[in-house]
Each structure stands twice: as structure tokens, then as C-alpha cells.
Design a protein that fits this description.
The chain has about 300 residues and is mainly alpha-helical. It has ten helices and three strands; from the N terminus they run ααααβαββααααα. Strands 1-3-2 form a three-stranded antiparallel sheet, with helices on both faces. The protein starts with a helix and ends in a 17-residue tail after the last helix.
Length: about 300
């Protein structure tokens, strides 16, 4: 907030009230949240969380329909499950495109994943990159200093529109729980997998295989066809959606670098089994609120 005032002062523009247009432009340039732009100088007792804000009618309708379709995606019928997942992707794609076509200003929010570990596991990084490719969000890996432990932890920030970040966060946690559940179910095969290798290495191979298998499902529903849009409109609007989010991302992180490491053995039995298991994963319907009735 105070740095925004300094930016206005250093720019030497036309005189205006302390919290005028130039001040708010500086706040936007610094990426400040709405609560930090207010005229009051004191920090609020509790910093507002964008997740606590009330969803708009359109956002609520989108999430509600997605929940119902994800319930269908648990079907044992692979064709039916794939169609349900495709419909979810179509809904989110069309919603994002309509926001651009109607010139609605996007509210870009962030969810920060703190691992409480100094280094992020390879399968966590793969799951996050999967979100980046398929769920209308942008992901960046960071180091965040934790004052209580006096150590830097590996973190990731996921940026996007509110409804997209909500879905991406759900998918991430769903995948992390599913990896552990599937791994426990494969205990009987561990002896065969760890011959000549370590348990940790084969667990990593299995997890990486599961995520690769899950992504094969997403790839099947990647090229969605949207009603009410011509092919030319689709291409133009998709670029507009990407540009909007990319501009917000680059504004916050103007200097980034790409890095990666391959820590998986595709020929291992654990990886191949994981890939087969991952192709069978069905996204479960998320539960947003505790039920008011019991039973």
C-alpha cells in the first residue's frame, strides 16, 4: 500500500487525492489485493480470503453442474465416464470464453500450496504441471520462508479465475489422495517391484505412471467442440483467455525460468502398472459444504 504511494510520488503526475486514480493504478501494477487498497492504514484483524467471498450466480451454477457431472464420471462404464469428464471440460471452456466475449473483467486469484518440505516431490510437480495444461490455470514453483521453522519450503502458486482455481485445487488434492490409496492397494506386488531397487524409487515410478495414465484421459477430451461458437471464434477466444491470464501472470512474475528433471524409469514394472491404474481413475464429485442432515 505504501509502496503504491511512493510510486505515485516518484512518477510526479498531476495533483490528485491521496487515494485517487493514480494510486489505484499503482496498486494494480503491484498486484495488491482489494483489501490492501483501502484508505485505512491498519491491517485488518483477519486478512480476507477470496475463497470466503460469495460466488456469483453464474459461478455457483457452473460449480453445481460440474459436481453433478463428476458424479457420473465415477461410472464403471469407461465411455460414459469419459463423456462426463468431457462435458465438464466443455462447460469450463465455454464459461471462460463467454466471459471474454462479453468483455467481463476477470478476477485473477491465487492458491498457494505449501509443502512443508524443502524440496517438492517429482509427482507433486507432475500433478501441478497437469493442472497447468488442462485446467485453465498457471502454476509457478517458489521458495517461501517459514518464520516459525526458520527454513525455506518448496511452494507453488496457482493463478487463475476464481472458479478455475477452485476446481484445480480440488483436482490436485483428489490426485494426491488417490495416489496414496492406489499405492496401498499394490502392496502385494512390492516384492517383485523392488528387486534391485529401492522402495522409494519404485513408489516414485508408480506415482509418475499413475499421473501419466490419468493425463491420457484428459487428452481424450482436450479438443472440445463448443455450441454457439464458430471454429474461428473458438481459436480467437481461446487465445484471448490465455492472453488475459498470461498477462496477469507476467505482471506478477516478470522474470521466470523453466527447469525440469526426469526421475522416472518408464520401463519399470511399477511405472507401467501405475500408468494402467491411472487410466482408470475417475474424478469423484467434490463436497463443498457439510451436510445439514445426518445419515
Amino acid at each position: 500500500h505504501e509502496m503504491a504511494h511512493q510510486l505515485v510520488s516518484d512518477a510526479g503526475g498531476d495533483p490528485e487525492p491521496p487515494h485517487g486514480t493514480q494510486f489505484f493504478n499503482a496498486c494494480r501494477r503491484l498486484g495488491l489485493p482489494d483489501w490492501a487498497m483501502r484508505a485505512r492504514g491498519d491491517l485488518p484483524n483477519e486478512i480476507p480470503d477470496w475463497k470466503d467471498s460469495v460466488l456469483s450466480a453464474d459461478e455457483q451454477r457452473l460449480l453445481s453442474r460440474a459436481q453433478k457431472l463428476l458424479a457420473l464420471a465415477t461410472s464403471e462404464n469407461e465411455h460414459e465416464a469419459t463423456l462426463a469428464m468431457q462435458r465438464v471440460r466443455e462447460m469450463y471452456a465455454k464459461y471462460n470464453l463467454e466471459q471474454v466475449r462479453e468483455n467481463k473483467e476477470a478476477r485473477i486469484v491465487s492458491w498457494v500450496l505449501i509443502t512443508r518440505r524443502r524440496r517438492m516431490d517429482a509427482w507433486q510437480s507432475l500433478a501441478l504441471s497437469l493442472l497447468n495444461r488442462h485446467f485453465f490455470v498457471r502454476v509457478i514453483h517458489l521458495k517461501q520462508f517459514h518464520a516459525e521453522d526458520l527454513v525455506q519450503y518448496a511452494t507453488a502458486e496457482i493463478m487463475g479465475k476464481k472458479e478455475n482455481v477452485v476446481m484445480a485445487e480440488y483436482v490436485y488434492h483428489f490426485l494426491m489422495r488417490t495416489l496414496e490409496t492406489l499405492w496401498k492397494s499394490q502392496k502385494a506386488k512390492l516384492d517383485g517391484w523392488i528387486r534391485g531397487g529401492s522402495l522409494r524409487r519404485e513408489k516414485r515410478n508408480y506415482f509418475m505412471g499413475v499421473l501419466q495414465g490419468f493425463e491420457t484421459q484428459l487428452e481424450k477430451t482436450k479438443n472440445v467442440s463448443l455450441d454457439g461458437f464458430t471454429e474461428v471464434q473458438n481459436k480467437a477466444l481461446v487465445l484471448a483467455v490465455d492472453r488475459e491470464l498470461n498477462e496477469a501472470f507476467r505482471s506478477k512474475y516478470p522474470r521466470t525460468s523453466a527447469s525440469g528433471r526426469s526421475l522416472v524409469n518408464p520401463s519399470s514394472e511399477a511405472y507401467q502398472q501405475g500408468k494402467a491404474d491411472g487410466a482408470k481413475i475417475r474424478l469423484n464429485r467434490p463436497i463443498a459444504h457439510e451436510a445439514k442432515t445426518r445419515g
